[in-house]
Amino acid sequence: MTVRAKAILGNDEFFELADKGFHTGEEIRKCHEAGVETLVAIPKKPVSSQAPDPNFNQDKFQYDKENDFYICPAGQKLRSNGTWYQNHPYKTKHYKTKACPDCPLKEKCTTSKKGRLVERNENIEATKRNKKAIEQNKEFYKRRQQIVEHPFGTIKRQWGFDYTLMKGKRKWMVRWD
Question: Where are the domains of the chain?
Fold first, then answer.
């Protein structure tokens, strides 16, 4: 939608400000390719994707882009077989090491008996760029929350809605005349 809006408005300077429901790496990448900077909130990661010790979460692994491998906090190299897997709506590479079974830090890093698996998706550079933009523009993003979120909160409170569920209900529209 952002790329279409940019084309319709004929504006070269365009920022996308969106909440976490719009955080997909592919869409963020498409915006960057179209010259649109993004500030899209990052959803919280599921607990299952985290290491037993937060010091061993994937963001603590260093990626060597030139040689295509990760270095874990214990100093081991995790390598890929080079295959892109289509396990999600996007492609990922898997990185592993044979050093996991004998690693003294394994209990902090993973609960898997096979060892640690790190996935790198094809859009990771775009999502990292988005994260950096959010960190550098915190006040700008806060303004979006104040402008956009407030009306929805007010409507819900005034009409007594704790949540809105339209599944199985006849859709209706409110007109703001």
Answer: 2-44+127-158, 47-122
Residue for token pair 């609960």: 111
Is residue 175's pLDDT more than 50?
Answer: no
Give per-residue pLDDT as tens, 64-89.
999 999 999 999 999 999 999 997 78
Q: Exposed e or buried b for every residue in 23-51, given b needs 16+ CB within 10 A?
A: bbbebbbbbbeeebbbbbbeeeeeeeeeb
Residue 71 near residue 62 (C-beta atoms within 8 A): yes
Cα(118)–Cα(97) distance, integer angstroms: 10
Burial class of residue 144 (count of CB atoms within 10 Å of its CB; 0-12, 13-18, 19+): middle
Q: At 20, phi and psi to the nearest 5?
A: -65, -20
The crossing angle, in degrees rounded to 10, of helices 124-136 and 25-33 is 80
- Report for 87-91, 126-130, 157-161: range of highest mean pLDDT: 126-130
Strand positions, DSSP E, the chain = 15-18, 37-40, 62-64, 69-71, 77-79, 92-95, 118-121
Given the DSSP bridges, would you call strands 37-40 and 15-18 parallel, antiparallel or unpaired? parallel
